[in-house]
Write a structure and sequence with these properties.
With about 400 residues, the protein is an all-alpha fold. The chain has 15 helices and no strands. It folds into two domains: about 5-335, no CATH class; about 340-405. The longest helix is centred in the first third of the chain and has 35 residues, at about 55-90. It is globular, with a radius of gyration of 23 Å. It binds protoporphyrin IX containing FE (HEM). Keywords: Membrane, Transmembrane, Transmembrane helix.
């Protein structure tokens, strides 16, 4: 596949803002997607581990993690859409080819995701009080985890197939015979996939520190449970961190030849240092994690380190496609559209910011107060603003659409 052919596959309309904007947003939203995916997988696994245990601590944790996993799935899906949009804008020749070559799996992805989420809900419906009754129907949670992992594996395959334009013809027409069925996944790299999955352990450890701090904020009376949680969080971070580094090392040792440069690059070094710093953070903070926002800060630092990992992963793609295939994502034709660019950032910052701040404040305060929770006047006003902004946004969306249509 020559660079000219790759360039010919680009959208001739160009992109509506500088390509760097899409690359940076792609990295940021990919990191958020990963954080949600990893909390989802970790919380679901802890639910399985705890629900069937005789220990009350494990059961209590399972109850909390079931709710966490359930919400994390929806967050992972919603935040998964964002990198999907950005990757298909600047890397459309690669992303769409990879998707078309495995079209059945692209559609199957949605079916498996729906089934995986339903399986988790079936487990949830069967388990209203894990602390009192223990767990029931664990097979549903196992099925859910398996399906969600399969979904991740499909995305992994699609993102990796796009990096091998030299193989596309052989995949599309093996031995010269065209096979347009799209029934196969043609390429995957297990160590790479497992690296992102293994990171679930340290990320969930960091999440547990936040959960523990949250309970402390609500004046949790069970000090033994808090102490137990701290030990578990630490174990997950340290052992999970070591396992992730080992799996990452296998990934680096088995990189395809054209990507081998990455193993000795400064990008990899930065990612490794960022991950190690987060794992070491609780050991440095010690008892400070019980005060202020430090307990939450560990997860915040984890999210930052995932951004560094995401940036390194993006460099691997960018440099491979530029160096080996002559495709420069930064020279995409720009057809500057200030309206859509400003609408995007306003939606993200103002509408998203106010609405999310309201929802998080209400959830937070309700969880921290005992008895019936009544929001303050300021919080209620924030809620009214959120609704107003959403209505305004919707009206604007349709108004501009009709205006353009009527012209
Ligand atoms: C719920 C189960 C899911 C799991 C376990 C999962 C896992 C993963 C993993 C491991 C990767 C990294 C692959 C690699 O670099 O090799 C990834 C990337 C990605 N995921 Fe997900 N994912 C899930 C759901 C979704 C959903 C529902 C969407 C979209 C709606 C999505 C969109 C993406 C995109 C677009 C990327 C690649 C971004 C890029 O290449 O820049 N994922 N996911």
């Amino acid at each position: 596949m020559t660079p000219e052919m790759l360039y010919a596959l680009r959208d001739q309309a160009g992109v509506p803002s500088h390509p760097l904007v899409f690359l940076v947003l792609g990295v940021l939203t990919f990191a958020l997607h990963m954080a949600a995916v990893q909390v989802m997988l970790g919380a679901a696994t802890l639910t399985l581990r705890g629900a069937f245990s005789a220990s009350q601590h494990w059961r209590r944790l399972a109850q909390a993690m079931l709710v966490t996993a359930k919400i994390a799935v929806s967050v992972a899906i919603v935040i998964g859409v964002a990198p999907l949009l950005f990757v298909q804008v600047v890397y459309d020749p690669f992303w769409y080819t990879s998707n078309v070559l495995s079209a059945w799996w692209v559609i199957g992805f949605i079916v498996l995701l729906i089934l995986g989420y339903i399986a988790m809900y079936i487990f949830y419906w069967q388990n209203h009080d894990i602390v009192a009754d223990g767990g029931k129907g664990g097979v549903w949670m196992v099925l859910s985890l398996a399906l969600l992992l399969a979904v991740g594996f499909i995305v992994h395959s699609l993102t990796n197939q796009m990096l091998f334009p030299e193989e596309w013809m052989a995949w599309y027409a093996p031995q010269g015979v065209v096979n347009p069925a799209g029934r196969e996944l043609h390429y995957w790299h297990l160590p790479r996939f497992l690296f992102f999955i293994a990171l679930s352990a340290p990320v969930t450890g960091a999440w547990l520190y936040g959960y523990r701090r949250y309970l402390q904020g609500g004046n949790e009376a069970d000090a033994v449970y808090l102490g137990w949680l701290r030990g578990l969080a630490q174990q997950l971070m340290v052992f999970g961190g070591v396992v992730s580094v080992l799996v990452g090392a296998v990934w680096m040792a088995t990189l395809p030849e054209k990507m081998a440069w990455f193993a000795s690059s400064v990008w990899l070094l930065m990612a490794a240092v960022a991950l190690a710093a987060v794992v070491a953070l609780p050991l440095v903070l010690r008892d400070r994690i019980d005060s202020g926002i430090w307990g939450y800060g560990i997860f915040g630092a984890g999210a930052v380190s995932l951004i560094v990992v995401g940036a390194a992963r993006e460099m691997l793609r960018f440099v491979t496609l530029l160096g080996t295939h002559g495709y420069n994502a930064m020279d995409y034709k720009i057809n500057m559209d200030w309206y859509s660019t400003s609408l995007f950032f306003t939606t993200f910052g103002v509408v998203g910011g106010v609405t999310l701040a309201y929802l998080l404040t209400v959830a937070w305060q309700a969880g921290q107060s005992k008895g019936l929770y009544t929001p303050s006047a300021a919080v209620t006003r924030m809620g009214q603003w959120s609704v107003g902004l959403l209505v305004g946004w919707t009206v604007l969306y349709f108004a501009v659409g009709f205006f353009v249509w009527a012209r």
